[in-house]
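Example 3.2
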Amino acid sequence: MDIHWFESLESTQSYLIEELKASRLQAPVCVGALSQTMGKGSRGNSWIGKEGNLFISVAIARAQLPDDLKLESSSIYFAFLMKELLGTFGSKVWLKWPNDFYLKDKKIGGVITNLMGNTLICGIGINLVSAPEYFEKIDITVSTYDLTKSYSELFKKLPAWKQIFSNYKIEFENSRDFFIHSSNEKIALTQAVLCEDGSLECNGQRIYSLR
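Structure, written as tokens:
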């Protein structure tokens, strides 16, 4: 996977989408920046950070994804790949359903996915060296480019969703002390049931990750 690296971008995801639409870049490809000024986060929030934190976006064709991976599960899938990679560097990071990286009870980053035609675009932001108030930075020392290069190598042979899910469903227990937002509603995960497609059953309703 080619990596295109920049000193600064408004948003790695916006830039990647624009370049794909103009056919100047083609999947599989990764775009990274040392800093970004107008990054996109969950539920329309921004994800803006200082130099040294991780800001990358990856594009991959749907045909290259595992056959058993549903699009609704893609945020969990690509976030858990990164979580496991960070673990090989010694981090104790865990994944809160469906797409947030946590250390203990503090968020350190997240994943957002979008579909553009037959191309899936995955944006990842992680606080590696600094964090805003109420957030945390990661518990290891790793350079943004080294982490990006290691992550891009995983795309040479992506594991099946079934393999990722079997590991994630154990870690999901850490999410039970938290809440999620669905349709502007705050929902406790205490009694949530994690389904095999990555969705949740909460209070009689089925909730999918839509980001």
